[in-house]
Amino acid sequence: MYNAPLSYSQLSGQEKAKKLLARTLAGDRLPHGFLFKGPDGVGKCLFGRGIAAALNCKAGNPVEACGVCASCRKLYSGNHPDFTVVRPDKGAIKIDQVRELVKSLSYPPYESAHRVVVLEDVHTMRREAANSLLKTLEEPPPGNLLILTADSSREILPTLTSRCQVIAFMPLSREETSAILITHGIEKTDARLLARLSEGSPGLALTLQKEEMVGLWREVVTVLSDPAVHVNRDVGLILRLAEKMAATKEHLPSFLALLRLWIRDLLLGEEEILSLLGVNHALKSWSSRELFDKLQAIDHAELGLTRNCNKNLVCEVLLFTLQ
After folding, report:
1. Residues 6+ apart with CB under 8 A from 43
2. What residues have CB less than 8 Å from 161, skipping those under 6 apart?
3. Is the dihedral of CA 87, 93, 95, 98 positive or negative?
4. Strand, helix or coil for residue 18
5. DSSP labels for 130-190?
C-alpha cells in the first residue's frame, strides 16, 4: 500500500472520484462518512489515505497533500496516529471491532485536525455490527471522518449506504494496471497477463503474483486444453493438479475466477489470454454448449466452497468436469 503516491490526485485512474473528492474538500463540506464502492483492489483504501493526507497536511492546501511535511511523512510510512484501517477479521468485521472503534472515536484526534478511519470491506459486516456503528456514522464526534469501502458486486446493508456519500470506483484500464505492475518489478509480458486476468484490479494482480497463482493457472489451463491429455488415462495428473489448487486455501475462489475468465474468453472467441499464456500445441475444441456447462461447473465448485465442502474433493470434481 505505502509504495503508492500519497496524494489521491496522483493515483492511477478514478478520474471521476478524484473530481468529486477535490470539490468536496475544496468546499469544506465533508459528509459524515464516505462509501467508496467498487471492485476489490482498485485503490479505495489508498484514496482514503490520500484524503487523510490532504485534510491534515501542514502545507495548508485543503485539496492536495504536500508529501513532505511531518504529517505526510507519517502517513507515507504507515505510522500516523490519526489514520486507522479496520479490516475484516477472519472474513467479517465483527461487532467487537466496531465497539472498540466507537470507543476510540470518543477521544479527540491525537495530533491532527481530523482523524480518518477506513473500514475495509463493509459488505462483510454482520447486521449487529452495522447497527452498533449507525449512530456514530450518522453523527460522528467532531474531528472524525469515516470512510467505508465495499465491493460493488456484494450486497451492502442499506442502513450503511444511506448514511454516507457514495463514490463509485471503476476497474482500471489494462494499460494503467500494467504500468502499476511494472513499477513493482513485474516483467512486461507477465504484467500484461496479470492485468488481463485481474480485469483492471492492480491489488488482485499483485495478490496473484505474490501467491504464485498465475503459474498454477498456466499449468491447469495448459493441461485442460491439451487434446493429448485424456481423462481416463491421466487420472494421476489431474489429481495432482487438484491437490495444488486446494493448497491455495483462502485464495481458491480467486483461482476459480481465473478459470471462469478463461472459459468465458473461449466462449467469446477471445484469444489474448492464450497468446499471453504461450500455449503452442493444438487446442481442444469445445462447443458453446460444452463451454456453458464448464461455466456451470465452476459455479457449482464455488457453491461447494461456500458450504465448506472438502476443497480437494471440490477441485477434483471440477477438473474432471472441465476435461
Report:
1. 4, 11, 12, 13, 14, 169, 172, 202, 203
2. 35
3. positive
4. helix
5. HHHHHHHHHSPPTTEEEEEEEETTS---HHHHTTSEEEE--PPPHHHHHHHHHHTT--HHH
Q: Grid coordinates representing 166?
A: 457514495
* One-letter identity of residue 71: S
Is the entire prediction scored with pTM above 0.85? no
Question: What would the pLDDT profile of 126-171 be if each residue is shown by its tens digit?
Answer: 889 999 999 999 888 999 999 999 998 888 888 899 999 999 999 9
Q: What is the dihedral of CA 12, 15, 16, 22, to 10 degrees?
A: 90
Q: Locate the DSSP E strands across 55-129.
A: 83-86, 115-119
The grid coordinates of residue 277 equal 499464456
In this structure, which topology does domain 8-168 adopt according to CATH?
Answer: Rossmann fold (3.40.50)
- Cα–Cα distance for residue pair 219/279, rounded to 1 Å: 10
Enter the C-alpha cell of residue 220. 491447469
Q: Do residues 206 and 181 lie in contact, with contact meaning Cβ atoms separated by under 8 Å? A: yes
Sequence ranges of the domains in the chain: 8-168, 211-322
Three cell numbers written together for 217: 493457472
Q: 156: buried, middle or exposed (CB in 10 Å: 19+, 13-18, 0-12)?
A: buried
Direct distance between the N- and C-terminal alpha carbons of the chain, in angstroms, rounded to an integer: 39
Q: Hey, what's the cell of 126?
A: 454482520
